[in-house]
């Protein structure tokens, strides 16, 4: 069995209990060294073989995983955040399927959740937005034409934008061109939950400049939307005049 584990957003204690328990028994770990906090590797035994995948190709990653599996090791592929978001795991899983090697995915806490926690925000405020769009700016790798930032911005939903910190100026321009006002509240959260975490607040027209002054070019999320404002409706969930399965209206 090969385990794909979400390491969480950065803080070592934000890995799940299940993920940490598996790591404690690992004999081989291949981790995303450019993103995963190395402090998380402390959960693994000292005898564990540890490989940094940041300079590896897909074939090399699979070779390390399959070698560990054939030795009989508890073998772990350690991804940042949750593996289902920008983890490039599908190609790895397909490779293991072809080799008829079993795997299990252990979900993790994504940085979009850690970023919201860091700024004390709720993406789905009643009367403001009930939709969160998770996306990224087109860069060296493309995005489908129908998912261009300008088109997504037309919904004016809450947005969490990954992998775009080095293009914040262009990203903010695209969001404004798509439908957000330049005065839309925004935040940049750098390395959410890490010791060096930084939070910058502003509006779309100035947040890129603030990030530039701080030298933020990577490992940061841009959060955009009216959920960052102060106006919203109270939830019906706790409204005494609203009945639901567990409570009658009063």
Question: Any overview of this molecule?
Answer:
The chain has 250 residues and is α/β, with parallel strands linked by helices. The chain has two domains: 2-106, Tetrapyrrole methylase, N-terminal domain (Cobalt-precorrin-4 Transmethylase, domain 1), CATH 3.40.1010.10; 111-228, Tetrapyrrole methylase, C-terminal domain (Methyltransferase, Cobalt-precorrin-4 Transmethylase, Domain 2), CATH 3.30.950. The chain contains seven helices and ten strands. Strands 3-2-4-1-5 form a five-stranded parallel β-sheet, sandwiched between helices. Helix 5 links the parallel strand 6 and strand 7 (158-162). Helix 2 crosses helix 3. 38% of the residues are buried.
Distance between the termini: 54 Å
Question: Strands of the biggest beta sheet: in what spatial order?
Answer: 3-2-4-1-5
Helix content: 10-25%
The CATH superfamily of the largest domain is Tetrapyrrole methylase, C-terminal domain
**Helix segment count?**
7
Number of domains: 2
SSE series: EHEEHEHEHEHEHEEHE
Q: In terms of structural class, how would the helical and strand content be classed?
A: alpha/beta
Question: Which term fits the overall shape?
Answer: globular
Task: Give the radius of gyration.
Answer: 21 Å
Count of β-strands: 10
State the assembly state of the protein chains: single chain
Mean pLDDT: 94
Low-confidence runs of at least 5 consecutive residues: none
- Which second-level CATH architecture of the largest domain applies? 2-Layer Sandwich
For the sheet with most strands, the description reads: 5 strands, parallel
Q: What is the level 1 CATH name of the largest domain?
A: Alpha Beta
